[in-house]
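Async update (no meeting this week)

Hi team, since we skipped the sync, here's where things stand on the single-chain job. The sequence we agreed to prioritize is pasted below, unchanged from the tracker. I ran it this morning and attached the output directly underneath so nobody has to dig for it. Comments welcome in thread, and please keep replies under the output.
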Amino acid sequence: MTQKYTIGEKDQLRARIQSNDIIRKSIEDKVMQGVESIADRLEYQRGQTLNKAKFLVETEAGGVTEDVWGRSAEADVTVAAKFDTAGTNILNELVKLRQAYKKLNGFYPGAMVMSTRVFLAIQTNTQFATKVGDGYRPATLEEINGILAGQLLPQITLYDRQVNTYDGPVNVLDDDSIFLLPPSDNRILGETVFSRTVTAVNLGWTGVNGQGIVANIVQRPNVASLRDIVVDSVAMPALYSPDAAFKAKVL
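Output:
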């Protein structure tokens, strides 16, 4: 993943006349823009790893390269009763998912990640909402987590992050699904693997010093008046235990 920004001759001359702080601020802003863009792209790839159990690389030309991690069908399910349907026994459905996770992985899930959209369906369900007069008050996150704890279910983690893509803003995780994951101290799920970037190689950095997101300012060959700010990263989310990233469509 690479982002490149150009500092033109006019900007450099203006900085010399006015203040170095101006060009420094411009460089810092472009570096941060590149870092945030790559961080967003990497977070999107992590989301695709959980959504599809695949590593997908999509190019501007529309090409797609993918590596399939091999999640079983039993770990990518649709619940029998959707959570936004009146009368659904959500607790019963969640317990079924918990047991299915245990059967596949040998341990219970330690985290339950969902969107606010799924959470709203849960908090307005009559199993959780409090009857007030002729209506119901939606349950709070604390109240729901208390009920879940009584059923040995993991606490809810809300996640609604979006990133910008060629097609506009998209959700990192599917907002109609629940993701059951291992406990936070269990590293069985996977990790993001980083390698040394081209920019790091050009700078002579070795080992972990060249991993992560790296930025550098390069004078363009044969064009002394132009300088490029290059920000790059070589990274790949790896899913070591695909069934431990259990996905259930609930809406």
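Quick observations from my side:
DSSP finds six helices and 15 strands in the chain.
The helical segments are 9-17, 20-52, 90-105, 116-123, 141-150, 198-203.
Reply here if anything looks off.
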